Amino acid sequence: MIQIGSRPQKSTSEPDAVDLLLGCHDRIRKFVALGLRVAEPGGAPAAERREAAQAVHRYFTVGLPRHSHDEDELVVPRLLLAHPPAALPRVLATMSGQHEDLHRLIDRLTPRWAELAASADPDGWLQGAGAALAEDTRRLHAMFVTHLEPEETIIFPAIRLLLPAHVQRELLSEIRAFHLRE
Q1: pLDDT per residue over 135-155, tens digit each?
Q2: CA quadruple 7, 12, 18, 23: dihedral positive or negative?
Q3: Residue 91 — pLDDT band, cuts 50, 70, 90?
Q4: Distance spanning both ends of the chain, measured CA to CA
Q5: pTM for the whole thing?
Q6: Which domains does the chain have, with CATH numbers?
Q7: Rounded to an integer, what distance in angstroms lies between the CA atom of residue 143 and that of residue 105?
Q8: Which residues fall within 8 angstroms of residue 120, CB to CB, at 6 or more apart?
């Protein structure tokens, strides 16, 4: 079935660098949504809520920084060397600046997710600190909505369009190697 408005999927069985980056975006959306659910009091057993908070904490302290590294340190330099159209360097600079803003907000959220994950009474913890957690998680969600769209519609297509196949393979290899080292 073809979904109207969905991102085009690559037809080959071997993923390329863009496929890996899009997979990261799927995980970002998944963990932001989980973070929003974790911040809602009630509806989940304490152990489940603690486990979800721990998963959100781990993703945003381990997985997301890797993705930001991939984009800022591996993608941006290659695209800038590819003689991009005039607008692309501005989009890349905006993306990197947004990474800084996102990570500042995440730095405020991660201790809260860790506290919730360690709480013997998650619902009680949420009664005290849940409003701030929910507000900042909603802010994080809004920031990612704004952030991910230009990456998926401008930057990622530019990778496939502007970078020669051997550079794309090198990018894929470096992304995989970096993730394995960490």
Answers
A1: 999 999 999 999 999 999 999
A2: positive
A3: very high
A4: 38
A5: 0.89
A6: 17-181 (1.20.120.520)
A7: 10
A8: 46
**Ordered DSSP codes for 108-158:** HHHHHHHHHHH-S-HHHHHHHHHHHHHHHHHHHHHHHHHHHHHIIIIIHHH
Whole-angstrom distance, CA of residue 135 vs CA of residue 10: 36
Nearest to 119, CA basis, from 129, 107, 104, 134: 129
